[in-house]
Each structure stands twice: as structure tokens, then as C-alpha cells.
């Protein structure tokens, strides 16, 4: 039978390991910049999808260089919405080009698209963190607002999974600069997500440094139209990873844009 001292020692080790795991390594757990393999070495280009584009290297306010694709409609670009697109926690912006292609070509969308690889993703410099990704997002929005064409368009911020949290935070601070928000399969906050995805760490969520408190941030939004795209709730056959492949996905976005954005 274990002594009190042995039990306490075991519990203490468990506590310390939990703290270290949640604290020191949470960025590695959350920001999967190297997955899938080769994501830091190869970033597909829009030209591979027959999309006209300009690749930009932007310097953030904390002096990190991030990569961005600006995909502009060839006709009436200033009269079409501009989608600011934030990808999930893995891969890079190039992996999202099939989605960008549909947003560009879909009859009810016909959008300009600005998409970036967060710091530490793709060919962008730096290391990912909540603070850093928020700076990257603001840098991308500022780019749109200074662009000779995009500054005259209605901006819709669109994010998938982690990108949804990035989007909500950005719009909560820039509601006057944005006309719409589209969020796919995101979460309330990292502390509320951890117990569901890593149950053994449910007791250590108070050590989270990466919080992404979307539930709080979204309460700051007063007027902006929002479209939530939620796997099985919005699309009966959808899952977290293939919601975008469901038949009505882009029609849903098109209807949202037609009703709220495109005049």
C-alpha cells in the first residue's frame, strides 16, 4: 500500500508534468506549422489554380516578415467583396487555395481574396503565438485598407478552426472597418477546448497561455452580420475537417454575401 508521502510525490510529479506540458509546449501542440510534412518548404501558388495574384511580404509592427497572397478579380474588383481569409492551425495559405478558387469563381461570390501564412507558417518568419497571430491579422487588414483597389471594397473576414478565433478577435477590434464575419468550426476558447481534445489535461487549463477567448470577444460585436458554419449542425454529413467539401457550403456563403454584403 502506498504511503502518504509516495502518493503525494506521485501527484506532485503529475502536477509538474501537467504544468510543463500545458505551459511550455502548448504552442507546439496548438500551432502545427510543420504538418502536413513539407508545409514549411513548399507553399502552393494561386497560379496553380489559374488565379491571378500578387505575392506580398509584409513587415508587422513587431518586425516579423509574413507572406501574403492578394487575389484580385479581373473585372469590377472594386465592386466585389474582399475576403480576408485565415487558415486553421496546420499547413499554410497555399493549402487553402482550393477554397479561394471557389470563393473567386462561385457565381454568388466572385470575391477578391487576401490570405496569409501566419508567422512561423509556410515561408513567413518567426514563431507562432496568440499575440503574434493577432498582430499578423491586423497587419493583413491594414494592408487591405491601404490597397489601391481593396480599400474601396467591403471586407469580410473569414476563418476556419483556429482561423475562426483569429477572425473573431480581429473583427472585435475593427468592427468599423469590416462588413461581415464568416466563421467555420471554431471554438469558445482554448481552456474550454482542452478538456474535450486532451482530457488528462482538463485540470491544468488555468496554465494556458494561449487562450483565444472568442466567446468573450464576440460579445463585443454589435452590428456586424455573422455566418457560422458548423460541421454536423449546418451540414448533416459534415465533419470538422470536411465541412468545406459539403454540397451547400459555398451556396451558404453566397447567400450570406448576397443578403448582407453585395448591394
UniProtKB/TrEMBL annotation:
Keyword Plastid attributed: no
Hydrolase as UniProt keyword: yes
A Pfam short name: Abhydrolase_1
Gene3D superfamilies in the cross-refs: alpha/beta hydrolase (3.40.50.1820)
Keywords: Hydrolase
Record-level Gene Ontology MF annotations: palmitoyl-(protein) hydrolase activity
Positions of the AB hydrolase-1 domain: 81-191
InterPro entries, sorted: AB_hydrolase_1, AB_hydrolase_fold
GO cellular component: membrane
Stretch forming the signal peptide: none
PANTHER family for the chain: ALPHA/BETA HYDROLASE DOMAIN-CONTAINING PROTEIN, PROTEIN ABHD13
Entry protein name: Alpha/beta hydrolase protein
Originating organism: Rhizophagus clarus
Amino acid at each position: 500500500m502506498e504511503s502518504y508521502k509516495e502518493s503525494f510525490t506521485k501527484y506532485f510529479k503529475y502536477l509538474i508534468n501537467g504544468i510543463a506540458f500545458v505551459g511550455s509546449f502548448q504552442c507546439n501542440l496548438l500551432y502545427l506549422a510543420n504538418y502536413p510534412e513539407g508545409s514549411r518548404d513548399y507553399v502552393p501558388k494561386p497560379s496553380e489554380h489559374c488565379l491571378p495574384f500578387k505575392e506580398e511580404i509584409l513587415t508587422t509592427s513587431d518586425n516579423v516578415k509574413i507572406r501574403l497572397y492578394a487575389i484580385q478579380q479581373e473585372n469590377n474588383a472594386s465592386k466585389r467583396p474582399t475576403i480576408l481569409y485565415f487558415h486553421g492551425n496546420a499547413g499554410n495559405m497555399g493549402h487553402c487555395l482550393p477554397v479561394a478558387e471557389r470563393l473567386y469563381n462561385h457565381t454568388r461570390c466572385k470575391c477578391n481574396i487576401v490570405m496569409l501564412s501566419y508567422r512561423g507558417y509556410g515561408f513567413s518568419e518567426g514563431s507562432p503565438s496568440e499575440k503574434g497571430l493577432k498582430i499578423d491579422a491586423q497587419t493583413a487588414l491594414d494592408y487591405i485598407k491601404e490597397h489601391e483597389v481593396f480599400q474601396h471594397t467591403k471586407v469580410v473576414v473569414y476563418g476556419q478552426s483556429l482561423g475562426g478565433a483569429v477572425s473573431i478577435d480581429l473583427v472585435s477590434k475593427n468592427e468599423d472597418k469590416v462588413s461581415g464575419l464568416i466563421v467555420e468550426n471554431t471554438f469558445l476558447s482554448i481552456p474550454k477546448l482542452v478538456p474535450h481534445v486532451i482530457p488528462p489535461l482538463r485540470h491544468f487549463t488555468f496554465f494556458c497561455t494561449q487562450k483565444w477567448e472568442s466567446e468573450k470577444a464576440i460579445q463585443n460585436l454589435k452590428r456586424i452580420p455573422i455566418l457560422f458554419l458548423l460541421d454536423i449542425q449546418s451540414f448533416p454529413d459534415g465533419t470538422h475537417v470536411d465541412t468545406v467539401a459539403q454540397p451547400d457550403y459555398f451556396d451558404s456563403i453566397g447567400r450570406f454575401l448576397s443578403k448582407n454584403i453585395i448591394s
